[in-house]
Amino acid sequence: MQFCPGYKVDDLDSLQKSGVDPRKVAKTLVEVFAEMIFIHGFVHGDPHPGNILVSPNGQKGFTLVLLDHGMYKELDDGFRRDYCRFWKALILRNADEIQRIGEYFGVGGYARYLPLIFTGKPINSKSALGKGMSDEEKNIVKQELKGLAMEDISSFMESLPSDFLIILRTDGVIRSILSKLGVSRSVRLVTYAKHAVYGLSVVRDSKSGSMLVALLSIIRSKLSYLQFQCILGVLGLISWLDDVRHLSSKSLRSLLATAQRLGFSHANS
């Protein structure tokens, strides 16, 4: 057993007092879990803030420390690849592919609600990724959800494979932490998408079939990866603009506060 010093990942006061940027912590956190799930096929099953510490040391100015390794899940590799395809379909807004993958997951018609769960958007949403639903979409979703009975929800949850359930739980906890650390939705979407595509681009079993089949598989994977990189570039730009807006807003508030203090001091002199 080893003692690991650090602060809980969502302890904003301690992070800021130590000079650690919470937004950088958030981006590192989502990178770690995305690589774990999409590339290596492992899931930390209990990533609550008490199990994730931030030590104010390391190359980036901090180090993430994951605790409690007794609740890991190793994903079936077929499921891992399907989950990568699912995220690719989410980003490309390929409703037909989402429905097909939903069949693989065993959720049938309930697959139409998976984008709502993971991205906060309905399956046919036209809104920009990382942004909220339009008023029209909100009304449509409300009407659809009103038509669901409790047994529908129970049936949906019971139909999900165990691998999917543990990912769903882990993702929910990570999203909560990211929200507390102050990053936009697009950070998670971009990071997940990047790792999902990389997970698909790696051909693990090139020995099966002919050399030509293996070569074509590699070419298709690389072309798909390049296509996705273009899309991720756009999403990355959106995320960067969100960061700029956040910093600009913070700087403006600081300037206004300084101006108010100076004005108050001048009035009293």
Q: What do these coordinates show?
A:
This protein is mainly α. It has a domain at 77-167. Helices cover 65% and strands 6% of the residues. It has helices spanning 12-17, 22-40, 77-92, 95-105, 114-119, 135-146, 150-159, 162-181, 185-201, 211-268; strands at 7-8, 42-44, 52-55, 63-66, 72-74. The strands form 2 sheets. The protein has a 3-stranded antiparallel sheet, with helices on one face. A two-stranded antiparallel sheet has the order 2-5. Strand 3 (52-55) and strand 4 form a beta hairpin. It starts with 6 loop residues before the first strand and ends with a helix. The model has no long low-confidence stretch (mean pLDDT 80). It holds the Pfam family ABC1. Residues 1-100 form the ABC1 atypical kinase-like domain. It comes from Opuntia streptacantha.
Secondary-structure blueprint of this entry?
Layout: E1 7-8, H1 12-17, H2 22-40, E2 42-44, E3 52-55, E4 63-66, E5 72-74, H3 77-92, H4 95-105, H5 114-119, H6 135-146, H7 150-159, H8 162-181, H9 185-201, H10 211-268
Antiparallel strand pairs: 1-3, 2-5, 3-4
Helix pairs in contact: 2-8, 2-9, 3-4, 3-9, 9-10
Keywords:
two-stranded antiparallel sheet; three-stranded antiparallel β-sheet; 10 helices; single chain; 6% strand; 269 residues; 65% helix; mainly alpha
> Treating each run of at least 4 consecutive H or I residues as one helix, how many helices?
10
The strand line-up of the biggest sheet is 1-3-4
In N-to-C order, the SSE pattern is: EHHEEEEHHHHHHHH
Radius of gyration based on Cα positions: 22 Å
Largest sheet, strands/sense/barrel: 3 strands, antiparallel
- The chain-level mean pLDDT equals 80
Low-confidence parts:
none
Work out the strand percent: 5-15%
- Structural class given helices, strands, pairing? mainly alpha
How many E strands?
Answer: 5
The dominant shape is: globular
Distance between the termini: 62 Å
The percentage helix is 55-70%
InterPro entries: ABC1_dom, Kinase-like_dom_sf, Mito_struct-func_regulator
Protein name: ABC1 atypical kinase-like domain-containing protein
Pfam families: ABC1
